[in-house]
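Section 4.2 – Deliverable D4.2 (structural model, holo form)

The reporting period included a commitment to supply a predicted holo structure for the target in complex with flavin-adenine dinucleotide. Inputs used:
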Amino acid sequence: MAIETDTDVVVVGAGLAGLGAAERLRALGRRCVVLEASARIGGRAWTTHPAELGGVWFDMGAIWLHDAENNPLTSIARNAGDPLLRSDAIRVERGFVGQRLMTQAEQTEYAAAWPIFEAAADTLIAAHGDVSMRAVAEHLGDNPWAASIEAWEAAVICTVDGDRFSARDWRRNALGGSNLVPDGGVGAFVQRRLGLGIDIRLNTPVTRVRWNGRGGRVVVETPSGAVSARSCIVTVSTGVLAGGGLVFDPPIPARARDSIAALPMGLAVKVALRAVGPDRLDVPLHCSVEQRVERIGDPLMPFQCWPFGRDYVQGWIGGSVAEDLARAGSDATAAFALERLRAVFGGRVDALFRDAPRLITAWDADPYVLGAYSYAVPGAADARAALAEPIGDGHLLIAGEACHVGYASTVAGAWISGQDAATAAA
Ligand SMILES: Cc1cc2nc3c(=O)[nH]c(=O)nc-3n(C[C@H](O)[C@H](O)[C@H](O)COP(=O)(O)OP(=O)(O)OC[C@H]3O[C@@H](n4cnc5c(N)ncnc54)[C@H](O)[C@@H]3O)c2cc1C
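Output (structure tokens):
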């Protein structure tokens, strides 16, 4: 690659934030080059068609457009005529206490416990500035549903155990509205609609960003050459930023480094097991299955059974259990999922899933992501806004899901954060 001295903005990463930045720059009439380390665009929005699951589309990372009514990607999909599946509307939910279904009274009690949990978080945050999600659960120790809610909101949704997670970050990022799924997958939607007409160089990992050069220019180095620009927008995950594979020269200010340290990556693992046989466990198609968590800190692994009428179940495990399983390997992960299914459905799952074709995601092993998405440690919810602050008179900007306040950790947050950085750079 030749050095391009006349580029306005160089963008590092072609995930949602990088693509959002490039789209905004084009709208503002600025030239830009996007450098992407991997062989595809989309980053953590990645649709595959795994043979293990019969070749159906499968999102390895993001699947839902959260808060769909206000999500900017919803309008892009709608304007393009892309069908959006109403996953919420067709979903059936089954809650279990041990191996029996929750009673109607328990379901009512569980539903009532969520606003109680939120109010307790707000009270503790008002009193202490911030607390961990674990502190909120312990504050409600007598409530039989507090452990389930903490497990859902921390380890499952935010991919980190409650004792490491800021309740203030959670309250800021609680997403309302409905969840829509682009038919064919979010990753496929991104490939189809968001990278068009942009100068994207794939297989081009950036190794060094020299950001206070002469005349305020930024030079971005890759194994195949360097790109020089007036500004640079870096959109890699906080896992990559903390990992040191991408060197800033000179180092970025302490405020930005502290923010990266305060926004580490959690981990979530998706486990899909394909049924071998006709048994459908007496649950309807597209059915969510969860089991009450009896003790604070115990793991919760919810399952989506027969999603969109398919012949597999998909489990989701997050937090330190996911990290332990990732270290232990895919056999241990599949065995853990089977044990969780057995805890609800009993021994019939053995015949259905033993030696079943399976798919297990491994975002921790992707060197260009290194985890699922960011969370704020207790006391550090403000780090998201701090990380988005322009560096070096605005010649260097950091964007991505970790930088958004409100839609943090989502495709929408990444997209908007990239667009905001582009506006600032332009
Ligand atoms: C399992 C899972 C489920 C999820 N579910 C949802 C969901 O349902 N809904 C939702 O809204 N969000 C979900 N998310 C989160 C969402 O996917 C992310 O928040 C979002 O995609 C992040 O976009 P980004 O642009 O900030 O980062 P990324 O997608 O990580 O993009 C950064 C890009 O930079 C590239 N890169 C890294 N290092 C370099 C380098 N040195 N040089 C050049 N390029 C580099 C990477 O390859 C990547 O393409 C999920 C994520 C995971 C992992």
